[in-house]
Amino acid sequence: MSAEKKAAELGLTFAPVEPGYLNLCAKSGNLLITSGHVSDMKGKLGAGLTVEQGYQAARECMVKILRSVKHTHGTLDGLKVVKLLGCVNCTQDFIEQHLVINGASDLLHELYGKTGDGWHARSALGFASLPTGVAVEVEAIFEIK
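Structure (tokenized):
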């Protein structure tokens, strides 16, 4: 099943993207490189926010990324996920950044498969703060097959 059909089955919809200050998804050759997309959730993991809340925030970031990718590429089909960078706003002693960013990776696995096109490289890092106090920021690189 195509990524577009899987997204529809999951109830994901993608409103048009209005141009902003920065390009949310730049195409270079056969790559789609996204800007960081942030969660609506604000706060700090390890100081009020749970791993599950962070997981949902990372998933939300990925939905926003997919919206930008679809706007630029016209479809979610025909793509391979190459790399994710996940940034987690967290306390110094918080060590479960990888579990938070699984929210983004798991959505890609649902759409593109855990092996093959959805199998990607990833970094999950903790930060003392993120812009406007958001909980999570994620950026991605996709290859156009």
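The first helix runs from residue 3 to 9. The CA atoms of residues 109 and 115 lie 8 Å apart.
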